[in-house]
Specification:
The chain is an alpha/beta fold. The chain has 19 helices and 14 strands. The strands form four sheets. Strands 6-5-4-10-11 form a five-stranded parallel beta sheet, sandwiched between helices. The protein has a three-stranded antiparallel beta sheet with strand order 1-3-2. The chain binds one RNA strand through helix 2, helix 6, strand 9, helix 16 and helix 18. Monomer. InterPro entries: aa-tRNA-synth_I_CS, Arg-tRNA-ligase, Arg-tRNA-synth_N, Arg-tRNA-synth_N_sf, ArgRS_core, DALR_anticod-bd, Rossmann-like_a/b/a_fold, tRNAsynth_Ia_anticodon-bd. One of its GO terms (molecular function) is arginine-tRNA ligase activity. It is found in: Cytoplasm. It is an enzyme of class 6 (ligase).
Length: 554
RNA sequence: GCCCCCGUAGCUCAGUGGAUAGAGCGUCGGACUUCUAAUCCGUUGGUCGCAGGUUCGAAUCCUGCCGGGGGCGCCA
């Protein structure tokens, strides 16, 4: 029996009790889904519900009296071994060993789909993250979202949402010209302009470009800036795509800011905002009255010299995303951009949308690196910044992704290179991956010793205390994934996997899947293999949601 | 000045109103002729920053304060 099935059974009990007149509440006061959770203390049973505490006031009953009533009825449900009322009115539920063990079969039948849900079914989500300028390598500031944004996309999809992952390419504006001027200067062996790009990669870029297109140097100077700019743009965009590909982060849409202007999206955006009546002119500029919706000042769309602000692109881009049918537009930004939250929310409101529903801005705190107890600030490759490529080279994709996704983005994160490259228990990625490798190893050994799942499955034999714990953890997975999606917090999946790995290691220590020596193969061995393989499936599914590999051997 | 995030064990951090607040590391002590010991078991460890409030119940929600980090542009 899965917790979802138990929850449904408990809800049926509520509905029946109401129909009998035993539970005096209105039909709409029966919760759509009844919370069933694992209790902290094992001795409190397999599952617990606080539904009696929540409904007591509405029913005008004492919480314990209501709990007693529900307990008596729930005990009658097949698969439920016992129901105890504890404390102020908790229902502590213990399942039949066999009913609990059935979960192993459920998981293996679902396979890679176990953990998927329809929690966000019907929602179309636009997920924009990283959105770096194509003027240099992706750096440490981008890595957090490269990992977490990608994992969030996977988690949202697992919860049933339609997800479009989008990278906004800031390929317009004076920074692009500064970039072109910097490459050109490097190509001529001249000093880089003060306001240009000073990383070592600029010189490498100049060398590559000149090697490919030597005739660029013969163009008139004014044309050279644009030519080097475009060549550099192509190189950097390709390099960003390449490193993100190596990192396992995939985008559905690379949205060029230029196309926003050439496609008429900017005009359509302005039109939308004018219709809603929030555009005005003052001091020779065109403004959006974002203060109507809580922003601390109004924002300029068109400067007094007639040029468009970056904010104008932002507004048009938002309107464009919505016009493409996305219900929710999620922006993943760094802490240094938190000032954008107010104005982005106001943009949504100015466009006639609900800023509480149609737009979400998630802020990730900064990431720092530590090695040998000292902060790492410099990169050989880029001169002044640490790149995503550096991080991959130093710690590998799995360690980097896992370390980044296991932390809440609300907290600043310090990655200790020494720790996350260590192959020991204090490196959580190895702890979880090793658990998976161990399940695979047990499967292989079982096969070679003639222990086959097909020969028997008798879940009543999974009666060890460590098996009840492991089954409980496995049952939680769909709820964890759905919650991670709803709260936009993929780190919950990683934390869950660490607990699951721990429950598995403990079980492994107590319950053998394969016989020792001449001992015959029994149904206990065969049934335990089901549990081993179910655990393997959940570990693999969870690691996949984080974009981390699930090794067969380590 | 205003805004955002954080403050939980010696350290790094989980814990979106529930029961006796948890994990890893660290300390100290155990378990390997192993279904891989990259593991497991035990031990040690807390005024959940402080003060009020909300309620059957607060680490969690609200207010104020203290401490740390980040941000405020007709830049991009």
């Amino acid at each position: 029996m899965t917790p979802a099935e138990l929850s449904a059974a408990l809800r049926d009990v509520l509905l029946t009790a109401r129909a009998d007149g035993a539970l005096p509440i209105d039909a709409d006061q029966v919760p759509a889904s009844v919370t069933v959770e694992r209790p902290r203390q094992r001795e409190h049973g397999d599952w617990a519900s606080n539904v009696a505490l929540q409904l007591a006031k509405k029913a005008g009953m004492a919480p314990r009296a209501l709990a007693d009533l529900l307990a008596a009825r729930l005990t009658q449900v097949p698969g439920v071994a016992s129901v105890d009322v504890a404390g102020p009115g908790f229902l502590n539920i213990t399942l039949d060993t066999a009913a609990a063990g059935e979960l192993a079969r459920t998981i293996l039948e679902a396979g890679a789909d176990y953990g998927r849900s329809d929690a966000l079914a019907g929602q179309s989500v636009d997920l924009e993250f990283i959105s770096a300028n194509p003027t240099g390598p992706l750096h440490l500031g981008h890595t957090r979202w490269a990992a977490v944004g990608d994992a969030l996309g996977r988690v949202l999809a697992a919860a049933g949402a339609r997800v479009t992952r989008e990278f906004y390419v800031n390929d317009l504006g004076v920074q692009m010209d500064r970039f072109g001027a910097s490459i050109m200067a490097a190509a001529h062996g001249e000093p880089i302009p003060e306001d240009g790009y000073h990383g070592d990669y600029v010189a490498d870029l100049a060398t590559s470009i000149v090697a490919e297109q030597p005739d660029l140097l013969d163009l008139p100077r004014e044309e050279q800036v644009a030519a080097f700019r475009e060549a550099g743009y192509a190189h950097q965009l390709a390099a960003q795509k390449d490193v993100l590909g190596r990192f396992g982060t995939h985008f559905d849409v690379w949205y060029s800011e230029r196309t926003l202007h050439t496609s008429g999206a900017v005009d359509r955006g302005f039109e939308r905002l004018r219709e809603q009546g929030h555009v005005f002119e003052a001091d020779g500029a065109v403004w959006l009255r974002t203060t109507d919706f809580g922003d601390d000042k109004d924002r300029v769309l068109v400067k007094s010299d007639g040029s468009l602000t970056y904010f104008a692109s932002d507004t048009a881009y938002y309107v464009d995303k919505r016009s493409r049918g996305h219900d929710v537009c999620i922006y993943l930004l760094g802490a240094d951009h938190h000032g954008y939250v107010g104005r982005l929310k106001a943009v949504a409101a100015c466009a006639g949308d609900d800023p509480e529903h149609n737009i979400e801005v998630l802020i990730g705190q900064l990431v720092n690196l530590l090695q040998g107890g000292e902060p790492v600030r410099m990169s050989k490759r880029a001169g002044t910044i640490i790149t995503l490529a550096d991080l991959i080279e130093w710690v590998g994709v799995d360690a980097a992704r896992y370390s980044l996704t296991r932390a809440s983005t609300d907290s600043p994160l310090t990655l200790d290179i020494d720790v996350i490259t260590r192959k020991t228990n204090d490196n959580p990625v190895f702890y979880v991956q090793y658990a998976h490798a161990r399940t695979a190893n047990v499967s292989r050994n079982a096969e070679s010793l003639g222990v086959r799942r097909a020969d028997a499955f008798d879940p009543g034999l999974l009666d060890d205390a460590s098996e009840a714990v492991l089954l409980g953890m496995l049952g939680e997975f769909p709820r964890v994934v759905a919650q991670a999606a709803e709260l936009r917090e993929p780190h919950r999946v990683a934390r869950y996997l660490e607990e699951l790995a721990s429950a598995y290691h403990k079980w492994y220590d107590r319950c053998r899947v394969t016989p020792v020596g001449e001992e015959p193969v029994t149904d206990t061995h065969r049934t335990r293999l089901w549990l081993n393989d179910a655990t393997r499936q959940v570990l693999a599914n969870g690691l996949d949601l984080l974009g981390v590999s699930a090794p067969e051997r380590m």
